[in-house]
Amino acid sequence: MILAAADLAFDGYSRLRAQAFGRVTGFLRGDHALAQLIRFALVGGLSNIAYALLFVAMIGIGPLIANIAGSILSTVIANELHRRLTFRAAGRVGWFTAQWEGGGLAVIGLGVSTAALAGLDFFAPGLGAMVEAGAVIAIMAAVGGLRFLALRGFVF
């Protein structure tokens, strides 16, 4: 009798968990800005992993070449995943357009983040490592947010 009640409770809990999981995945598949932002962040994380793997694989050639190759390939991967998954624009935006415009935004983002970091170093020299790391994270988050808005509003 006790086992039957425990099984019934477990089945109810499993059903509730499955329903909650279904709602979350349904939301993440939607076209709401928050769902797109979450997918954008996941794609960014995956493209960073691709960058790191390529960088490590090519480090024997030299760190500069490995960095350039990793940056280009991870940007191409991210742009394609954003086109297909994040913004579901494969039917509206072609591969070349996504690469050209998304790549251009990536270059602009690189310029903005580099200028911000150079400005930080110029205007606040001697910051501690933790403060500077926090500033880098804040700058990269701001650039990523602006990239999301630009991709969502203008490219896809």
UniProtKB/TrEMBL annotation:
GO terms for biological process: polysaccharide biosynthetic process. GO terms for cellular component: membrane. Keywords: Membrane, Transmembrane, Transmembrane helix. The chain crosses the membrane at residues 49-79, 100-120, 126-150. The keyword DNA repair does not apply. Its main location: membrane. It is found in: Membrane. Residues 39-156 form the GtrA/DPMS transmembrane domain. It is a multi-pass membrane protein. The keyword Transmembrane applies. It comes from the Bacteria. This is GtrA family protein.
